[in-house]
Specification:
Blueprint (H helix, E strand, L loop, with lengths): L12 H13 L14 H10 L3 H5 L8 H10 L2 H12 L2 H11 L5 H9 L2 H8 L3 H10 L1 H6 L8 H7 L5 H10 L5
Helix pairs in contact: 2-5, 2-6, 6-9, 9-12, 11-12
């Protein structure tokens, strides 16, 4: 409830951050909400209000954060991650924040999506979500090259054969993947 009601308020940013950290310490994760209460707007707000909060909710791996990251991984199911991605893709600023944050270095959350919920990557290609695809293609070339859809097509083959995928998306995938994949 608290995360969903956050607003931009520079005068209380520290209080908001401390409250988020306390909620996390009590066992909350971005995906621990019942799916019917998980709203894409919540993620959109987090990405837009204060991009720094992204590192609170989806921190880069560190031994001291292992317990929290493991909890997020356990609770991140396909439906919840899809809601999060839809929230991010509903706004250009949120897209850019996602791209910038996850492009810094390989991130466990992107790897989780590729290995456990690959249909999300195929969906991003079909929707021509280049800003969101960039971090995946930048840091997980080998994993992306080995992805297959239900028809056993690679991501590139899927993009080329899909009627909705534009040339820029196909070119982005071609440039990112090693030749012959």
């Amino acid at each position: 409830m608290f995360i969903g009601s956050l607003k931009y308020a520079p005068e209380v940013t520290t209080l908001q951050e401390n409250t988020i950290l306390r909620i996390i310490a009590l066992g909350w994760t971005p995906f621990s909400v019942d799916i019917e209460y998980l709203n894409p707007g919540i993620f959109n707000n987090i990405f837009k209000i204060n991009p720094k909060w992204l590192s609170l909710l989806f921190p880069y791996e560190h031994e001291q954060l292992k317990y929290y990251i493991d909890a997020v991984k356990r609770e991140a199911n396909a439906a919840a991650v899809k809601i999060m991605i839809n929230g991010v893709t509903s706004d250009n600023k949120a897209r850019k924040v996602f791209r910038n944050f996850f492009s810094q270095k390989p991130h466990w959350f992107l790897k989780l999506i590729i290995t456990e919920i690959p249909e999300i990557v195929f969906n991003l290609v079909q929707r021509n979500e280049r800003d969101i695809l960039i971090p995946f293609l930048k840091h997980f070339k080998r994993e992306i090259a080995s992805l297959r859809d239900e028809n056993k097509r690679s991501l590139l083959e899927f993009a080329i054969s899909s009627k909705r995928v534009v040339d820029n998306t196909v070119q982005l995938i071609q440039q990112a993947l090693p030749a012959g994949k």
